[in-house]
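Figure 3 (text version): structure tokens given as input.
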């Protein structure tokens, strides 16, 4: 019969444990660093809550989040194409080819609302009366209206019926623009 006698040296055991933990931490840091730098090198220059491809259809549920993100960082969204349904809203100091692609945003529990929307320009805008529901497709540009403002250059506009969800709600407090997520 063979009897093995192992004498455990506390210092050596601690050293082995410490080396294993150090190796694990090094691997984790390496993976995280790789993902950060790899992600940064493949990231497009435009940080966005809109996809960077073709035309992005905006829904009533994320309309104010998109509107807020575009107003907060116009330069990142210039050139993006969007599609949305809203109604024609005009104020007195707009040109005849300008209107607001509007929605009513609920601001209180007793159905008080404010009008929010993209300032839009369309060659034939005068052909559409106020409060007409329209579906527009256009490109976000940077313009000026009482300061820098995103302006939607409309390329296609057609009359439509009012949507099921006519009202929109304020932007989420937790909203963070992310690349490629609508």
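Below: residues designed for each position.
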């Amino acid at each position: 019969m063979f009897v093995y006698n192992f004498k455990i040296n506390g210092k050596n055991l601690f050293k082995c444990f410490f080396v294993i933990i150090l190796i694990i931490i090094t691997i984790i840091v390496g993976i995280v660093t790789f993902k950060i730098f790899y992600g940064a090198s493949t990231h497009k220059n435009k940080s966005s809550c809109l996809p960077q491809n073709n035309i992005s259809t905006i829904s009533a549920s994320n309309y104010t989040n998109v509107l807020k993100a575009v107003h907060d960082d116009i330069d990142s969204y210039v050139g993006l194409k969007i599609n949305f349904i809203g109604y024609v809203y005009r104020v007195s100091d707009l040109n005849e080819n300008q209107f607001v692609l509007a929605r009513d945003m609920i601001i209180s529990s007793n159905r008080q609302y404010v009008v929010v929307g993209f300032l839009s320009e369309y060659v034939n805008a005068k052909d559409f009366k106020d409060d007409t529901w329209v579906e527009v497709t256009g490109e976000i540009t940077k313009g000026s209206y009482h300061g820098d403002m995103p302006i939607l250059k409309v390329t296609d506009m057609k009359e439509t019926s009012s949507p099921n969800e006519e009202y929109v709600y304020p932007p989420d407090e937790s909203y963070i623009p992310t690349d490629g997520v609508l």
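The first strand starts at residue 55 and ends at 57.
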